Amino acid sequence: MSRFLVPLAAFVVLIPVLMIGLTRDPSRLPSPFLNNPAPQFELPSLIHPEESVGSADYEDQQVLVNVWATWCPGCRQEHGFLMQLAASGVIPIYGIDWRDTRREALRWLQELGNPYVATGFDGDGRVGIDWGVYGAPETFLIGTDGTVLHKHTGPLNRQVWQRDFVPLVSAVAEEKLP
Amino acid sequence: MKKLLWICVMLMCASSSVAIDAGKSFDDPELQARYDKITAEVRCLKCQNQTIKDSNAFLAADLRREIKRMLEEGMTDAEIYDFLVARYGEFALYRPRATGKTLILWIAPILLLGFGALFLVRIVRRRMALPIDDISEEG
Description:
Strand content of chain B: under 5%
Oligomer: heterodimer
Strand order of the largest sheet of chain A: 5-4-3-6-7
Radius of gyration of chain B: 25 Å
Helix content of chain B: 55-70%
Order of helices and strands of chain A: HEEEHEHEHEEH
CATH class of chain A: Alpha Beta
Shape of chain B: flat
Distance between the termini of chain A: 60 Å
Order of helices and strands of chain B: HHHHHH
Radius of gyration of chain A: 20 Å
Largest sheet of chain B: none
Number of helices of chain A: 5
Number of helices of chain B: 6
CATH superfamily of chain A: Glutaredoxin
Number of strands of chain B: 0
Helix content of chain A: 25-40%
Structural class of chain A: alpha/beta
CATH class of the largest domain in chain B: Mainly Alpha
Distance between the termini of chain B: 51 Å
C-alpha cells in the first residue's frame, strides 16, 4: 500500500505547481523597475523634432508612459482605449514611439487621433533599452514620486485598466474614470 | 543514382545553423572574444529561446549594438551584465548569477541528485537484505 502512497503524494504536490505553470504566460515578464524609480529619458518630440520630450516634463505628476510603434498590431488594438482615457482626463499619457519611422508615426496619429500629451521619438531604440522594453505596446504607470507603480505588457483595454490600474491611480481622479 | 544518394546524405549532414552575427565587430581579438561570449549568453527577450547572437529580431540587434558600445567604453563583463539585469531582469541571462533569488537554480540540481542517490542506496540496501529466491520471484 505505502509503495503507491509516496508517488501519489508526490504527484498531488506536483499538480498545483504544474497548474500554476500552465496559467502563466512566459512572454509576460515582470519589470525590474516595479516599485523602483522609473528610468529618466529625453528624446526629440515626434511632432516637433526641434523640441524635446522627457521625464522632466512630468515631475511630481502621476502619468502613463506608453511605448508604441506603427508596426505593432497590439498598439492599434489599444489606441481606441487610449483615446477614451485621454478624453476622460483621468491621467496624462506620454508616448514613446519606439523603433519607428517619423513619417508613419505622424500619419498614424493623424488617422487614429493623438491621445498623448507629448510623444518622444526613439528611432534607434536606445530609450527602449533603458526602459527594458522588449515588445510594444508596454504601458508604465508612474507615480508622483517617479516610481513605477505598474507595468502592463500588451494592449491596454478597459478590463485591464479597471483591474490593474484603477486601484493605483490617485483618488482625486477616481470620479472621472472611464 | 548512387551519386544522388550521396548528395542527399551530404545535404542532411549540412548544418542548418546560420549565424546572424558572424561578422567581426572588433579588430582587437580579445574584445571580439568577450563580445562573442556575452552575446551568446544573453537571452533575446523578444524571441525567448534564442540568444541575441542568434537572433535577427531588432531588439537583439539593438542589444548587440549596446554591448558593443559598452565594450568600447571599457566596461567590464560584470558591469555589462548588471546593465542588462537592471533593465530586463535576471531572466535576460542564460547563465544566471549564483546570488539571491537565482541561487536556487544552482543548488536545486545538486539537492535533487543527492535525494536520488539517497533513494537509490535505500532501495539497493533493502533488496540486498532480501533472500535470493525472493528476488527471482519478484522479477
